């Protein structure tokens, strides 16, 4: 599949994300993207963070999370102690009741949603019911411009088939890196 086809495909038509099209393309390209990111981590070009910043605007010009919400449908954020206190206060619950009702602790000790899709996602509108107090992990997602991008490559490898913005970022990163070689 040529890059020209991928860039002109209906995956990102007028910022509206076609999840069906995205899932097909992500399934097809996942291994190639993961291998590319592994090589990128090893090479760690000095301008990697600058490349991510330059790609970021283009990604958000083409992807509208409100037409997608696939992250909320298929993944869970990690809740910090501050997140738990802030959200439980917003919901007029104790932190203990909030954790008991909505969260579970994984084997690494992180607090995650008990199930997917996220209990706070309005499935009809793709909007978050706690948007103004959402977890910090949600605020930063998909972490495209996190400084020291090389430290987040493992996250991008996990998200490339779940997040159209991550997919688009990796696709563009491949084009830029290959152009410079």
Explain what this protein looks like in three dimensions:
This protein is mainly α and 181 residues long. The model is unreliable at 1-14 (pLDDT under 50). The protein is 54% helix and 8% strand. It has a two-stranded antiparallel ribbon with strand order 1-2. The chain has a two-stranded antiparallel sheet with strand order 3-4. The protein has nine helices and six strands.
Low-confidence stretches: 1-14
- Nearest-angstrom radius of gyration? 17 Å
Estimate percent helicity: 40-55%
The profile of the biggest β sheet is: 2 strands, antiparallel
| Binned strand content | 5-15%
Strand ordering within the main sheet: 1-2
Give the structural class.
mainly alpha
Cα end-to-end separation: 21 Å
Integer average pLDDT: 86
User: In the residues, how many domains can be counted?
Assistant: 2
Number of strands: 6
The string of secondary-structure elements, in order, is HEEHHHHHEEEEHHH
Number of helices: 9
General form: globular
What's a concise summary of this model?
By secondary structure, the protein is mainly alpha-helical. It contains nine helices and six strands, in the order αββαααααββββααα. A hairpin with a 2-residue loop joins strand 1 and strand 2.
Q: What descriptors fit this protein?
A:
181 residues; mainly alpha; 2 domains; two-stranded antiparallel sheet; 9 helices; 54% helix; globular
